[in-house]
Amino acid sequence: MTEIDPKTQTELEAAVYRRLVAHLQARTDVQNIEMMNLAGFCRNCLSNWMKDAADAEGLGLTKDEARERVYGMPFPEWKAKYQTEASPEQQVAFAKAAAEPH
């Protein structure tokens, strides 16, 4: 395996994260519940993880600020523009996944 120094590793990981966030911002048709049901995480998870990382560094990033960084706009605006009602099937799948041990 190619050796990568820690600084470069961090830069690569940051680039991947930025690309993932840009991809999710462009794919407003993909609902969070779909992501949760298929992958076990969603945009809200990413924003929560960002807030956790900021908290660990002693930064005053709020939950709303973290969400805006992930969604590319205030969450209520994204929700009004793009969030659709979850189908009964999606809700059942989500409840089933939430009940399973991780």
UniProtKB/TrEMBL annotation:
Tell me the InterPro entries matching this sequence: SMc04008-like_domain (IPR023163), SMc04008-like_sf (IPR036810)
Q: Which Pfam families match?
A: DUF1244
SMc04008-like domain: which residues?
A: 30-95
Query: What SUPFAM superfamilies does the record point to?
Result: SMc04008-like
Residues in coiled coil: none
Q: Which top-level group of life is the source organism from?
A: Bacteria
**This protein is called what?**
SMc04008-like domain-containing protein
Give the species.
Methylobacterium cerastii
